[in-house]
Design goal:
about 80 residues, mainly beta, Elongation Factor Tu (Ef-tu), domain 3, 8-stranded antiparallel beta sheet, two-stranded antiparallel sheet, 10 strands, about 0% helix
C-alpha cells in the first residue's frame, strides 16, 4: 500500500471525537487515512467531513477540515492517504 501525506492534525475534540486536519492535498469522503504520531497509529475510512459545521464531500489543499475519528488524535500527528499499489 502506498501512502501520501495529506495533512497534519491541529486540534482534537474528544466529545464528538473529531480531529481537525490542515490539508496539504485534496481529500474526499471515502478516502482511507492513516493517522501517525508519537502515540497515534491507526487507519480508517473517512465517513464524515465538515468545514464550519457544514458537511462536505471534498476538500482542497489549504483547507482545515473536521473529520470524525475512531481514536484519539493529537496536534502534530501526520495524516496520510492510503492507496492500493
Amino acid at each position: 500500500m502506498a501512502e501520501e501525506l495529506v495533512g497534519t492534525i491541529t486540534h482534537y475534540f474528544p466529545k464528538p471525537e473529531v480531529g481537525v486536519v490542515k490539508l496539504t492535498a485534496d481529500l474526499k469522503v471515502g478516502d482511507v487515512l492513516h493517522f501517525r504520531g508519537h502515540t497515534t497509529e491507526f487507519q480508517q475510512e473517512i465517513t464524515s467531513m465538515q468545514v464550519e459545521h457544514e458537511n462536505i464531500e471534498t476538500a482542497a489543499a489549504g483547507d482545515e477540515v473536521a473529520i470524525k475519528v475512531d481514536q484519539r488524535v493529537r496536534a502534530g500527528d501526520e495524516v496520510y492517504r492510503v492507496t492500493p499499489d
